[in-house]
């Protein structure tokens, strides 16, 4: 009886104390891979950790998403203030400020905010700002983020201009995330060539809206149209090699009388085939 109690105590100790179980990061995914003798390297671990994050997280990096269909103005202004000025406002706080310092009756009537409402709120925060008109070259020359109104998909909308590079205009859209337009398309949808700037001393500017490599991953319309309904074809021999590498193997006797290895023990690849709908 004593041995049983002692054994149970030891098992409990080893189960709770002896193993250093590290806490799993929330973005970690573990996958198991069977060791394959055909692989030239045997050093690969059976279980590997892969860190992932939702694509949506990067899509809206540095952007305050609009909470309502009519609140693109408050979300765009919050994005600009947080990402460029360095404030830590929520969209609701910005919305309350726009209602308090803007033209309240007109805001309620049109169910949207104007650049004048933004200027009044920014002034209440102790900063200089203003709305201007200009060409794309003027917008680019400023070298800073700016709120620009666009008319897109049948709606008037506010986005934050981030940068121009290689014929594309990159914007932070409170509804769609980090997106871009080719230069000509942007000129077509840019409403009245209007822009809204907040004056910030160079040493106080924040870089949350700076252009990053992930922003420049885009597929032009012609490429989408070209490959949208085309099945990419590979040589059958290449596909066989890929299938063999991804499969398991089993040693069994060849019972095919027409085979050169009839009656001999051969390796058979056990593949999984998936039928596309």
Give your account of this protein's structure.
This protein is α+β, with helices and mostly antiparallel strands. Helix content is 34%, strand content 22%. The chain is built from 10 helices and 10 strands. The strands form 4 sheets. It has a 4-stranded antiparallel beta sheet, sandwiched between helices. A two-stranded antiparallel ribbon has the order 1-2. A two-stranded antiparallel ribbon has the order 3-8. A hairpin with a 2-residue loop joins β5 and β6. The termini are far apart.
The main sheet comes to: 4 strands, antiparallel
Task: Output the structural class.
Answer: alpha+beta
Uncertain segments = 273-277
Output the helix-strand order: HEEHHHHHEHEEEEHEHHEE
Tally of DSSP helical segments? 10
Structural Rg: 30 Å
* Shape assignment: elongated
End-to-end distance: 63 Å
Roughly what is the average pLDDT, rounded to an integer? 80
Please count the beta strands (DSSP E, at least 2 residues each).
10
Strand content range: 15-25%
Task: Provide the fold topology.
Elements: H1 2-18, E1 28-32, E2 47-51, H2 55-59, H3 72-85, H4 91-101, H5 104-110, H6 115-124, E3 129-133, H7 136-141, E4 146-152, E5 155-165, E6 168-173, E7 177-182, H8 183-189, E8 194-198, H9 221-227, H10 236-245, E9 248-253, E10 265-270
Helix pairs in contact: 3-4, 4-6
Brief sketch in words of this structure:
It comes from Acinetobacter chinensis. This protein is of the alpha+beta class and about 280 residues long. Helix content is about 35%, strand content about 20%.
